[in-house]
Design brief:
heterodimer, A: alpha/beta, TIM Barrel, 8-stranded parallel β-barrel, 10 helices, B: alpha/beta, Rossmann fold, 9-stranded mixed β-sheet, 33% strand
Chain lengths: 276, 205
Amino acid sequence: MAKNRLIFTLLMQEGTYMLSRNFSLQSVGGLDWIKEFYNFDAITFSIDELIVLNVERGVRKIDEFSKNLAELNKGCFMPLAVGGGIRTMEHAYSLLNAGADKLIINTPLIEEPKFVSSLVKTFGSQCIIASIDYRVKKDGDNTVCIRNGSHPTGKGVDEVVKIARNLGCGEIYLTSIDKDGTGEGLDLELIRQVTSTATVPVIASGGVGKFGHFTEGLLQGKAEAVSTANLFNFIEDGLIEARSDMQKEGIKMASWNFSFYSTVPEKVGYSKKRSQ
Amino acid sequence: MVSIVNYKMGNIRSIQNALSYLGVDSRVIDSPEEILTSKKLILPGVGSFRVAMEHIRAMKLFEALNEAALKQGVPLLGICLGMQLLATEGEEEGPTKGFGWIPGRVKRFSPERLSIKVPHIGFNTVYFEPKSKTLFEGLETCADFYFVHSYRMICEEPEKCVSSWADYGERFVASVEHRNIFGTQFHPEKSQSNGLTVLKNFCAI
């Protein structure tokens, strides 16, 4: 059967990589900068899947984003899921042509459900991921927020999970805005609630700060995949260590030879620094 | 030089990226003339069996591919849908004839019977037939590869053509090999170093 997945989420704004805390953004640096200082290759070689989100707050420039994505994809030999500002079929084609395997849809789940259906119909449910961002209110109820988490919809997570299912989305990407960027750990209770009823795989995100949090999301939350967007907690071989840690806990993870990458001669336009 | 056949179905860029990472020159081709002057062919593909064969026939690639694969003996690798097209017939959107180089049929997984979710998506373990090392040289007896598919090939002569298997509710064909013809149901270009190893082996034939 298919394995559990460890996913890294890159937040991109006009070619710059961002860190997020409770959905407030902070600039980190360009792709070259990250490659040089943070051995980004070590991250891409140690994950099962890469998510890239265009988090521009104004009008999102899909062409520019597609260009950056195509550049990034040159060194990525795993499935690539992308999202942020996909509102037309042209946007979808542009991103798929740039190398995306899956499209992540958030605001249109609520505001343009017909568009989501047509994406599912055109590209298949395996291609469309429903992204659900939520906050927990003071009374303990949760509310799903759209438009970069800024706009509470008044709908609960369960209701939006149902909407996603009815639209035919093939996966759910669940993010706690309250936990996002805090490193405190995932919102296990809500993840468990979603995975117990969801008929499609669930990617749990928001709050991962150390290895153990991945394991918790999979074993206690029963998610199929866990994701982190925190570049700094898992620099160098951090995610490789995380994988072996998860395997020790009995989680079924795909395995491959990480040292393969250092045996390939250096190519133009592609940095291949390895930590020795 | 590896030629990637572009018949307007699927993710060619990722395959090009993987080859270029391995230091292998590649070109994207879409004409019968180019097929006949190729030393090595990759047939990619994502989408429906029927539409794929319609494109291949409309672009007049069918005869040229037959000539290259059967008469010229050019090494050919079909990936995902590209592997399924090597079979005799596919059932997706009605029965459609494939190339017929690998005797077999392509049928949908039965989720009801096997209690599985279809499509099959994600990394899964592939178990190699000990005799077929061509594509799997440098790997152990099994390795993980990335799959995304709803249909799988059922081979008429598995002992002759199947080079590896995987489990998803049932044992299914993960790759085929017959003379100069190869196919992988998984995506080597999306399977980290395991997949790069397979592509490297194909390029070294």
